[in-house]
Structures are given as structure tokens and as C-alpha cells.
Amino acid sequence: MFEKIRYRLLIANLLVIALVLTGFALAVRLVFVRNLKQQLTERLITLGQGAVGNAEIDNGQLQVENEFLAQKIIDKYQALEWFNTEKKLVKQQGDYTPNAPLDPQAVVEIQTGKPSIQSITLPILSTESGKLIGYVRVSQLLDEFDETVFQLDIGLGVGVIVAVILSSAGSIWLNRQAMQPIEASFHRLKQFTADASHELRSPLMAISSNVEVALKYPDGMREEDHEVMSAVISATEQMTRLTEDLLLLARTDRASTMTLAPVNLSDLLYDLVQLYHPQSENKQIELTANLEATLFLQGDFASLMRAFTNLLQNAIRYTPAGGKVKVEARRLGQQLRVSIYDTGVGIAPENLEQIFERFWRADQARSYDDGGSGLGLSITQVIIQSHGGSIEVKSTLGAGSCFIVHLPINAKA
Ligand SMILES: Nc1ncnc2c1ncn2[C@@H]1O[C@H](COP(=O)(O)OP(=O)(O)OP(=O)(O)O)[C@@H](O)[C@H]1O
Ligand SMILES: [Mg+2]
User: 0.70 exceeded by the pTM?
Assistant: First the structure.
């Protein structure tokens, strides 16, 4: 049980940590890339402005001063192009120019693809008239930028993975620390239940044996006292059953208390059905069995008897007169399947989960008022699970129920 809680806590922790770290990494990437791009753009604009100042109109033709020694200013991954107003290329320096016609509207333009190039187009205005005399397109290769972003992505990715791995180790340790006191108090509570029920058995036995002795000699006893004594015996029996159930639950949670031996489930179920025949006949319930001849499994006879008694008792108890109860058992591969059908009151869909809870009884079940405590199915479930099996229920309110038990032939206790 605690293993499952620990596992769920770990998954939840890791999910939250992974989400937070991924969000953080994405934010860092966004800010870093934006700043880097801004810096590159500013550098390009500065270069472009220098190139604009070196273009003049001469005889109606755009001229670029040769003193503009681009090689000194521009890096090898940058390029400059001067265009006249007809967007015709006048001069070019550098190799990496975008493979696209000039678009004066695009102040900043990024050409993606390989090689990835960023370009900026600036207008050239005449120093005298202020009229447009041409354009300068300044470009740069973004290889370095792409490489930096790639490295950043790898760094952040590896960082997130390492952080998640470290956090999972931390989470396991923290969960263990946090669960320890809960586990300890749970075990103390269980131990207390076991001790209390164990200790209650002796006084209860003393009460019932004393009252039984008194009832053996009814001479001199008033008629009313006789009834009172019988009521005391019945209440004591009910309490004894309850304490025994609690003790069994507190103990059977540890499957190791079982002793496994070959059990013929067909015989066990056959005897059980025979035992309950008189009771079902009294209630005018048709009790039938359909069992495969030999169904052996490794199990604890007494516990299995207890589990199937609970199921059969329930089927008879919650089926009105005139109904039917059927017990079926067969082998399916390495498993045995036992189904107990009844045409009884059924269970509401919203209660199907609760019926296995300790002390849970449907409101209508209380009207049977036969001393049921609501522990029967919890005990059955614990026994079946400690045999490595499972129990499920299908039910329709007002029509009947079917409890299906699967048990492995070779249980590992
Ligand atoms: N075959 C069934 N048909 C309809 N309701 C059922 C059936 N079996 C169980 N239930 C419902 O589930 C509840 C829990 O069953 P469970 O066997 O745990 O307790 P109980 O029968 O009330 O008491 P006891 O501890 O004596 O078995 C029952 O009170 C009843 O409401
Ligand atoms: Mg029951």
C-alpha cells in the first residue's frame, strides 16, 4: 500500500519539477535569443549606416566611394550591396548576400534556410536635397548565431534532464523521510487493533461461558431473566465475531501469516454449498453449483473457506425468497475462476467501490439487521489478494450481483 503511495508521490513530484524546469529553460532561451538577435541587428545597422554615408549621386548615377574599405570594417561573414532607385545592383562587397531581389519595405529581414542570412535594407538619401537616391542592403551570415543557440539548447536540455534525475533521487529520499512516521503510526494502529481484539476475546469468552452456565440451571430464574440472558449470549457472540474479524484483518494484512498447501477448491466449494443448503431452502432460495471436478491450488484452506463463506453468505442474505444463487468454478490457464451469482437486491453503481471498505453496509442491508458488521467483504478481499488473486463485482440494482474471484494456481505467499 505504502509502495503505491510513494510511487504516486514520486511521479507527481517529478512531473511538477519537470514542468517548472522546462518552463524556466524556455524563458531563459527566449530572453537569450531575443537579446542576441538584437545585438546582431544593432551591429548590422551600424555597418549599414556607414555604407549609406559612402554613397553619392554623381551625374544622376549612384557612386560608391572607393575609400570605403569594407574589408577593414566588415567581417568575412558580412556583405554590403548598394542599389540605385531602380533597385539595380551598383556595387557589392562580401560574399554572403541574400539570394533574393531587393525589398525596400523590409527594414529587417531574415532569410532562413541554409545558409541562414539576416539582411537589413536602409534608404540612401541625398545629403543636399534629402531625396531618395538608392538603397544599401547589409547582410550577415547567421551560422555563428545558430551555433550559439544550438549549444544553448543542448546546455538547457542536458541541464533539465540532469536536474530531473537529481530531483528524483532527492524526491525518493524526501518521500521516504515523510512517509516513515505515517507508516510507523499506521503499523502502531494496526498493532493496537490486533492487541485490542485479542485482549477482548478472553473477557467475552468469560461472559458467554458464565451466562451459558447460568442458563443451564434455569430453576429459580424468572422467565424474563431467561430472555435477558439469551440476549446477552447473542450480543456476546456478535462481539466475539467482530473482534475475531478485526483480529483477522489486522493480521491478514501481512500475508506471511498464511500457510500454503495444496487445496482442492472444488471440494471446498462443494462442502460449502452442502452446508448452506438447509439455510437456502429455509429462505426458499434455489442454491446450485457447477464445479469442475478437481481444481487444485496452493492456498490456505481455512482462509479460503472463510473468504467463500462470506461470499455465499452474502448471496443468500441479500437475495429475497424465491431467488436463485449459483456457484461456478473452473480453471482458466494458470488461474481458477469462481463466480457466485445471485438474483438478489443488487448494489447501486455508486456503491460498487465502497462495498470492500471496512464497516461499509448499504442502507438497505441494515434493514436485514442480522448482526452483519460490514467486514465480510474486506476480509474476503484481503484473503484473495494475499493469495495473489483478485475479486471483482458486477451488479444491477434490483436484479442481482455476481462476485468473480480469480486465484492463481501457484500463489506466492
Ligand atoms: N451479494 C450481494 N448482493 C447485494 N449486496 C451485497 C452483496 N454482497 C455484499 N453486499 C453489500 O455490501 C455490503 C458489505 O458486505 P460485507 O459482506 O462486507 O458486510 P455484511 O454482509 O453487511 O456484514 P458481515 O460482516 O457479516 O459480512 C453489504 O452490507 C451489502 O450492502
Ligand atoms: Mg457479508
Answer: no
